[in-house]
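Morning!

This is the sequence you dropped in the shared folder:
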Amino acid sequence: MASGAPRVGIDIGSQMIKVAQVAAGRGGVSVTALGMAPTPPGTLENGMVVDPQQLGAALKRLLKEAGVTVKDSVSSVSGQGALVVRVIEVPKMSDSELAETMRYEVERHVPFAANEVIMDYQPIIRPDAPPDAPNMEVLLAVAQQDMIDRHVQMLLAAGLKPKAIDVEPLAANRCLVELGPNPYGERTVVIVNIGASSTDIGVFRNGILSFPRVLPMAGDMMTHNIAQQLGVTPEQAEELKRKFGEVILDQVGQPQAPAQEEGFLDFSLPSPTAAPPPPDRMPFDFSDPSDTAPTGMEESAPAPSFEASITPEPSAPAAEHDPQKVAVFNAIAPVLSELLTELRRSVEYYRGRSADGRIDEILLCGGSANLKNLDQLLQSDLGIPTRVADPFQLASLASRNFSPEYAREIGPSFVVAIGLAAREMVQAPATAAAGGKRGKK
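The structure's back. Tokens below.
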């Protein structure tokens, strides 16, 4: 039986705002309201809220249209330049020594000025770690204070009571894994959240985050390529992508083989300059926005190079396929090739640092996850079972905003929002550690 007060999850992307109201009951978690609306242009830039009042007004309208009845919210933040979360390895030490060490780790890992940030960390204690291991893992999270201030101002403008701010990889894992009957069993899952402006990769071993990465490529890049190659407007390109976009498997060249060579964080929220925060302390969870190599890769041996190629296969006659589908596929193929290369690179990097290299499944979510045959492409190339995630597999659908059929069709877009709303309805494993450190640096 799930427990916890009803919450609304707020997932604001560069293209769409998604909201989900979730309630707990004897039968588990139930999604009681769903809603989606375009993000007003000019209100969000690189994950940073630019116009809190306008974006808050749009969110307020969406909440009303979706039939959301609660004010307590859990929302997510992201951003290529204002947010970092990394799993780092340090020598085993006492709590007091770790507190001192983390002050210096911030300087090493953040790509922005470290004088106005909110920082937190959480030791990660894994049940399979040798008791005499010389090192320990720590989940380090850092965010620019201005980013959080603006985000909270936007929520207050929407009439909400912010209870927590989370990050997308942890929320996605909550929806797709933690709501299940055995979330912390011996299983490794890769969750790939393909949004509009970026793709989040999260490797979760035994339900605990082991490796986060963010790629600066996703649906918007595909739309841009279609517009550029077919000579249409961005709006027309988006429509072509939705209507004709798919991976034409018999025209995909085989990629070349590579050369041989968790937990939750609590943050104290500083007072926004334009509006006071809610009286309760607000916890924050953050994910790594690095758009280059995965965390720590630069400190190890050179990463293997890959030359994935997704190109039309000469032996496949174009006449066998709808010419419009072929044209759209040819336009998005370079993006898919780069995405596939970077995903394979991340998988191999994780395997190289993991004791057994085991990965049981890849789950796709986000607005671009439904690209036809994308799951088959990844499964064929990576040799790992891959499927499009169904957020209603572990959370029942009680909302009447959409028909059950349409809700499941667009369900991958709501994975993060549902996971956000369910934040207080799951029990984090005791082995993930308790009592992180928080504060403004």
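Headline: Confidence is low (pLDDT under 50) at residues 254-309, 314-319, 430-438.

More detail when I'm at my desk.
O.
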